Amino acid sequence: MKHSFFQNLGIDNHLSKTASSPDDRRKTDYLSSVSPIDGDVLAHLPVTSRPEYDHTITKLNSSFAQWRVFPSPKRGEIIRQYGLKLRKHKIDLGRLVSVEMGKSLQEGQGEVQEMIDICDFAVGLSRQLYGKTIASERPQHHMLERWHPLGIVGIISAFNFPVAVWSWNAMIALVCGNVCLWKPSEKTLLCALACQQLLQEVLDENNINYPISAVITGGKEAGQWLAADPNIRLLSATGSATMGRNVASRVGERLGKVLLELSGNNAMIITPSANQELALTAAVFGAVGTAGQRCTSTRRLIIHRSIYKDFTEKLKNAYAQLRIGNPLDKSMHIGPLIDREAVSSYHKTLDAILQQGGQFLVEGGTINPPGLEKGFYVKPVIAEISPEAEVVQNETFAPILYVMKYDTIEEAIRYQNSVNQGLSSAIMTTDVQESERFISVEGSDCGIANVNIGTSGAEIGGAFGGEKETGGGRESGSDAWKTYMRRQTITINFGDSVPLAQGIKFDI
C-alpha cells in the first residue's frame, strides 16, 4: 500500500522497507504501525529509551521557562497558525487517520476538523484567561485571583481518536503557557508524528527555536515514566478504567495532578413520545460508527415496552442495510476493529451474552471482505438482554448493542445509571417533563446528557468528560482550561498598617 500523503505530512522518512507481521506489532527496539484495513505494515518506529526520555524532559523544562513568559495572545497566534496548517493538510491528515486507525474517510476528516475547531477556541481563550477581584474584609486591602501555567503537561492518548483528543489537551495547555509531552497509542504512532511535524513547521516559521511539544513512543513502561515523574505537573490520560486506576495511583503517590478520560457505557432512553426516525438514526450511528470504538458509542438502548417490538424491528431492518468493508470506500458504513486483540474481545463478549441469558436479534461474527482478508472486520450485533446482566456492566470496544425494556421513566433512568461508567447519555422524547427529569439532579449521572440527539460525539465548546469510572476529568471547552493552570490568591495591602484577618490582635 503506497500513500503519497506520507510525504505531504513530512513523515515519509519514518517508513521502512522491511516487512513485518501484523501479529508482532511490538518489537524489542521498535514498534510497527499496522493498518487495520488490510494488515499492511505502514512503518517501523524506534521505541523511546529512558535516556532519551530524560533528555526530552530536560529540554522541555528549559523550554517552559521561555514559553511561559511569551505573552498569552502571542501564544494564541502560534496556535492560530497551527490551525491554518491543519486546514492546509486536512485531507492528508484525515486520510492518515483513516488508514492507520481504520475509521471512515468522513470520520477522519471530521477528527481533523475537531483539531481546527479547538485551535480556534484556544486562540480566543488566549485573550480570556481571566482571574477575579475579591473583596477583602480588611481596610485598604484587596484580593486577586490569578492563574499561572503548570509546566510540562503529559498526554497519553488512545487509538480511537489519534489526533483530536491530543489537540483538546495540547492546544489549551499551550495557550495557557505550558509545554507538552505526548505518548500516543502504540497503534497510531504515525498520526502523532504528523501532528508534531506540522507544529514544528509553525515553530520554525516563527523562529521559535525551542520545543513546546514532544512525542515519545513506547508501551506501558513509557506511560509509567510519565505517571511517576514529578516533572509532569499534569498528566492527562485517555484509555480504559484499568489504565486509569494505574495512572491515578502512581500520580497520587507523588501528589501530582491527573485528568482522566476513561471508559464509557452509554445508554439512550427511547420513550413512547420519541420521534422514532430521529431515534433510529441516532441509535444506529451511535452503535456502529467507528465500528463501535468511540468512548461515546451507544452501548445500551432502553426502550419503552409499548414501542419495543416496533422499534427493534426498525433497528433490525436498518442493520440489514449496513455495508462492512474498506473505510476508504465511501459506500461502506463500517470499517475494521483496530487489531486481532479487539476481535478476540468481541467474540468473548458474544459468548458471555449467551452464557448470561441474552439472545441475538442480529447475529455477529467475523467477516473477510474480498482483498482485505488480513484486516479485522466483524458484524455489528444487537443483543436482547437483562439490564442487570454482568456483561452489560462492561464496555467492549466493538459494535455490540444491548436492547432492553422499561415501563416507567424512573425505571429507565435507574437502568441508565446502573453501570459503573458515566460518560455520555441520551433520551429521545417530546415530553418536556421527561426531558427535564432526565437532565435534573434526579436524572442522568453522566458528564454528558443529551436530549433528542445521540450519545456519540460532542462539540468542543462544552467541557468533555464523565463521572464514576470515566474518571471525572474535563477537556476541551467551557472552563476546562483551569485544569491546565495553577490558581494563585493574592492579597495586596495599600495602607499603612497590618490589620489581621478575623480581627485578631497581635501587639508587639
Automatic annotation (TrEMBL):
<dbReference type="InterPro" id="IPR016163">
    <property type="entry name" value="Ald_DH_C"/>
</dbReference>
<comment type="similarity">
    <text>Belongs to the aldehyde dehydrogenase family.</text>
</comment>
<dbReference type="GO" id="GO:0004029">
    <property type="term" value="F:aldehyde dehydrogenase (NAD+) activity"/>
</dbReference>
<dbReference type="InterPro" id="IPR016162">
    <property type="entry name" value="Ald_DH_N"/>
</dbReference>
<dbReference type="Pfam" id="PF00171">
    <property type="entry name" value="Aldedh"/>
</dbReference>
<dbReference type="InterPro" id="IPR044638">
    <property type="entry name" value="ALDH7A1-like"/>
</dbReference>
<dbReference type="InterPro" id="IPR015590">
    <property type="entry name" value="Aldehyde_DH_dom"/>
</dbReference>
<keyword id="KW-0560">Oxidoreductase</keyword>
<protein>
    <recommendedName>
        <fullName>aldehyde dehydrogenase (NAD(+))</fullName>
        <ecNumber>1.2.1.3</ecNumber>
    </recommendedName>
</protein>
<feature type="active site">
    <location>
        <position position="261"/>
    </location>
</feature>
<feature type="domain" description="Aldehyde dehydrogenase">
    <location>
        <begin position="29"/>
        <end position="490"/>
    </location>
</feature>
<comment type="subunit">
    <text>Homotetramer.</text>
</comment>
<dbReference type="InterPro" id="IPR029510">
    <property type="entry name" value="Ald_DH_CS_GLU"/>
</dbReference>
<keyword id="KW-0520">NAD</keyword>
<dbReference type="InterPro" id="IPR016161">
    <property type="entry name" value="Ald_DH/histidinol_DH"/>
</dbReference>
